[in-house]
Design a protein that fits this description.
Helices cover 40% and strands 17% of the residues. It contains five helices and six strands; from the N terminus they run αβαβαβαβαββ. The longest helix has 32 residues. It starts with a helix and ends in a 6-residue tail after the last strand.
């Protein structure tokens, strides 16, 4: 029993503290942006919880009944993260979304402003190489073009698309904050909190 306790103190506790520190560091950027119109920041946000994987075989873009849709938990999570962002008081430049119903609904429930549909944010789940896909290139250029513009650009999309852009995977209803540097390299500078904890 004593050996197990020592193991936990020596090995497990530092890992937990490191994880908590990393999570806290991801949130620090929001304190710097609070109440401001930041320049060049883009929030890549994954749609909230929509149970399942991919899309049904009978998927139709303009028919939500043929798609995976947000669960009640997913809807609540989207509202909560929207409220969290609103409390930060960060000026929003624009909100754009994939045309998939689960992404559109997430963007609307964030309640950060009028939602514009952007086909370049549509799911790349079926694509062999999302990193080299033209949609990814266009969103990458959009982030670079936003580098000298004020206000937070919010892009609501899908796991595969965000991972293709950044190499980072995000859970449903979570996002990462990115900014392009003066060489056009997109860097991850923060994340939204996991409000489920």
């Amino acid at each position: 029993m004593m050996k197990r306790l020592i193991y936990i103190i020596v090995f497990i506790l530092p890992l937990c503290l490191t994880f908590q520190t990393a999570s806290a560091n991801e949130l620090l950027i929001w304190d710097q942006l609070q109440g401001k119109a930041p320049k060049g920041y883009v929030l890549l946000f994954r749609h909230s919880l929509a149970p399942g994987v991919g899309d049904p075989a009978n998927f139709k873009l303009n028919d939500c009944s043929t798609q995976r849709n947000l669960s009640a938990e997913g809807r609540e999570d989207a509202k909560e993260i929207g409220q969290w962002l609103q409390r930060r008081g960060v000026k929003i430049a624009r909100v754009e979304s994939s045309r998939w119903c689960r992404a559109k609904e997430t963007a609307q429930l964030l309640n950060l402003g009028k939602v514009r549909l952007n086909r370049n944010l549509d799911s790349l789940f079926q694509e062999a190489d999302a990193t080299k896909h033209p949609q990814t290139s266009k969103v990458r250029q959009q982030i670079i073009n936003h580098r000298n513009k004020t206000g937070l650009l919010v892009l609501v999309g899908h796991y595969v698309n965000i991972a293709a852009l950044t190499g980072v995977g995000v859970d449903s209803g979570e996002g990462i904050l990115v900014r392009a540097d003066n060489k056009g390299v997109i860097k991850v500078v923060g994340a939204t909190p996991d409000l489920g904890d």
